[in-house]
Design brief:
By secondary structure, the protein is α/β, with parallel strands linked by helices. The protein has 13 helices and twelve strands. Strands 1, 2, 3, 4, 5, 6, 7, 8, 9, 10, 11 and 12 form a twelve-stranded mixed beta sheet that branches.
Length: 331
């Protein structure tokens, strides 16, 4: 293979940020003339094939891929926007705010659906639902929940089975978790009933889907709520132990999005990468060969890229929501 995929031990970033990375990888030739710096909250194993496909047509380019949590990504980028060329995140509200605040470069018309872009600067490239993931053993011999109401019933009927064995995002620290929670709450009061049940069972709080899935596989928890479906389905070694459920009532979906930093050193390369990314993810025949779910241009999702995304980023609304969440879940 022309491009070597290996771990970089040292990056040319501020030392104060080094400990923030969940992963940091280098793609391409060490002697490349240009290095594209991508800041992302998507696990490397899901994004590596996309980067490698891009580099096949860019022999003079390499890629630094830095991974952190969605909330940390937002803070890191706002602190040092000059350190990154492309920003990718599943936290739609935080991405939208960065672009709305002037941190994104306008790329012109990429022939992208209006609902999947904002001001020709922010581009959605993957649509994915939040799912319920269960440990199969914990539900052996009993009905598998197919909705949030079913899950509430199952947890209440067997509290001894689920005490300390339910997991979800800590919305105080996870940008994606906060986004999913606010969208759930807007859709139905069921979310708050479910949250109260979680709290009564001593729910475990997580930063990210990957950690929840690891604990599901080990049996440490029996239920994980609002997990990214692709992350769970991507664990091919664990499909006999876990099951992914798309709630039948008001499924919550998010769109991963990307933009080019206004401070990029490589505007042409970064723009070409965005075009490559949106192109392959929109082509269903090509997207099927990549781990991330594609963007279906024929179906407009309930949540699009528009200013309504920033509603719960208002300081007062966020503080109120977090207080209500803490009252329900921390008992």
């Amino acid at each position: 293979m022309r491009y070597i995929f290996f771990l970089i031990l040292t990056f040319l970033v501020q030392p104060v940020l080094a400990e923030e990375w969940e992963d940091q990888q280098f793609f391409g030739s060490a002697t490349s003339q240009k290095t594209l710096r991508i800041l992302s909250n998507t696990d490397t194993r899901f994004f590596a094939p996309i980067i490698e496909s891009f580099l096949k047509s860019q022999p003079s380019v390499s890629v630094k891929y830095l991974v952190t949590g969605s909330a940390e990504l937002y803070d890191i980028f706002r602190t040092s926007p000059e350190d990154f060329d492309v920003v990718i995140s599943s936290a739609m509200d935080l991405q939208f705010k960065l672009v709305n605040d002037g941190y994104a470069l306008a790329l012109g018309d990429l022939e992208h659906p209006d609902w999947a872009q904002w001001r020709e600067s922010l581009f959605a490239f993957s649509t994915e639902p939040a799912t319920i993931v269960i440990n199969r053993e914990a539900f052996e011999g009993v009905p598998t929940p197919s909705s949030r109401q079913d899950l509430i019933k199952a947890l209440r009927q067997r509290p001894e089975t689920f005490q300390g064995r339910v997991g979800t995002y800590d919305v105080r620290h996870s940008g994606l978790g906060y986004f999913f929670a606010t969208q759930d709450a807007r859709a139905s009061e069921t979310y708050w009933r479910l949250t109260e049940v979680f709290g009564s069972l001593g729910v475990r709080l997580y930063c990210c889907s990957g950690d929840m899935i690891d604990d599901l596989v080990s049996g440490k928890i029996a239920v994980a709520y609002n997990v990214l479906g692709s992350y769970a389905l991507g664990r091919e070694d664990a499909q006999s132990q876990i099951k992914v459920i798309l709630p039948s009532n008001f499924p919550t979906k998010m769109m991963r999005s990307a933009f080019v930093s206004t401070n990029t050193r490589l505007p042409d390369v970064a723009g070409t990468f965005i075009k490559h990314l949106t192109g392959i993810q929109a082509d269903i025949s090509k997207a099927a060969t990549f781990p991330l779910p594609p963007l279906d241009r024929t179906v407009e999702p309930a949540i699009s890229l528009d200013p309504a995304l920033m509603t719960y980023l208002d300081r007062l609304k966020r503080r109120t929501f977090i207080q209500e969440w803490e009252s329900a879940i921390i008992q």
